[in-house]
Design a protein that fits this description.
It contains 13 helices and 10 strands. The protein has 354 residues and is an alpha/beta fold. The chain folds into 2 domains: 25-165, Orthogonal Bundle (Arc Repressor Mutant, subunit A), CATH 1.10.10.10; 207-351, Rossmann fold, CATH 3.40.50. The strands form 3 sheets. It has a 5-stranded parallel β-sheet, with helices on both faces. A 3-stranded antiparallel β-sheet has the order 1-3-2. It has a two-stranded antiparallel sheet with strand order 9-10. β9 (346-347) and β10 (350-351) form a beta hairpin. The longest helix has 18 residues, at 317-334.
Amino acid sequence: MATKKKEKKDDSTKWSVWTFPKNTLEDAIRILKVIEDKNAGNPMHASELRSALGFSPSDWRFQDLLKSANLYGLVSGSGNKSIVKIEKEGQEVLTPSSGGERKEALLKAFRNVDDFRKVEDFYGGKRIPEDEFFYNNLIRNFNIPRDRVDKFSEIFLANINFLKSFNIQFAKEKSETTEDIVLTKEDLETFQLESSVGQRVRKYLDTCFVMMPFGEWFDKYYKEIYIPAIKDASFEPIRADELFTTGSVVEQIWEQINKSKILLAELTGKNANVFYELGLAHAAVKPVIFISSNVDDVPFDLRHLRVIIYDIREPNWADKLKVKITEYLKNALKEPNKSIPHPFRVDNGKLKSE
C-alpha cells in the first residue's frame, strides 16, 4: 500500500534576506534626530543609540529600525557593535540648506530601496488599486514574497503618503520598464510642488500636535494664529481632524502624540476630548504648552507648568499670542521637563514614576 508523502510546508522565505525596510522612512528618520540631539550629529555607537531610542538590549525592533535606516541610505553602520554615521542623504534630510534639498533627499532615500522604486515607477503616480489586486501585482510582477506582501504594502503606502505631505507630486507617466534605472535630475524634476488651493505643505520633520476643540472660532485661531506660530518655532503643526491613517481615531491620536516632539493644548472651555488627549500626552511623557482665554479652565495642579493666558479684549491680542506660543515652544524644546508634570519627568533616562 502506497504511503502518502507528508507535504512539507514551504518556508523558503523564512530565513531569506529582506530586500525592503520593515520601517517607514518617517520612523527611520528618528535615528537621525537622536544622533543629532544626543551626539551633535557625530558618529554614535549602536549601543548608545539603542539606549537613546528607548530600546532594551534584547529588543529586536532596534535592529530592524537601524537596518531600515541603512536601506534608505540615511546612515551607515548596522549591528549591535557598529558605529552609526549619518550619510550625505541623511544630512540633507535632517539639516537641509533649503526646502527643495530636503524634498530631493527624501525622494532619493525612498528610491534607494529598489523594490519601492520599481513599484512607484510602474504605477507612475496613478491610483494604487484595491488591496487584492495590488497584492497580486506585487507577488507576480515584483517577486515580493506572499508572506511579506502585507508588510511591503503597509510600508510602501505609508512612505508615499509621507512624501506627499511635503507636497511631492509623483510622475504622471508610467515607466517603460521596471528594470534598474539611474536616478537622474529629470527623475527628480517630476516631483514638483502641487498647486492645489488650501492644501498645507509640510516643511519641517518635527511635529507639534495641537489638542483643541473644533468649530468656527477655534478653527480660525488654528489657521491664523497657531499654525504660523508653530511654524515660526520650526515645527510642523497637525490637528486630530488632519489625521488620515488607518485605525481607530484614538489609535491615530495616540500614534501622533508619540510621534510629536512637543504638543500644544487649548484648554478654553474645558473640552472633554482635549483633556482626554492631554492625559494621553502626559502618559507618553511629552512636553505640552497650555493656552487658554480663562485661567479657571486650567486645572490647578497644571498651572505651575508653561501656561499662556490670552484675552481677546486686549489690543493686538492675536499677534501677542502668536509671539508667546513661538517663544514657549522654543523654550520647551530646550527644557522639555519643565512642560511635563513632575511624576512623569525624565531623570537620567528613566521616568520618575518607575
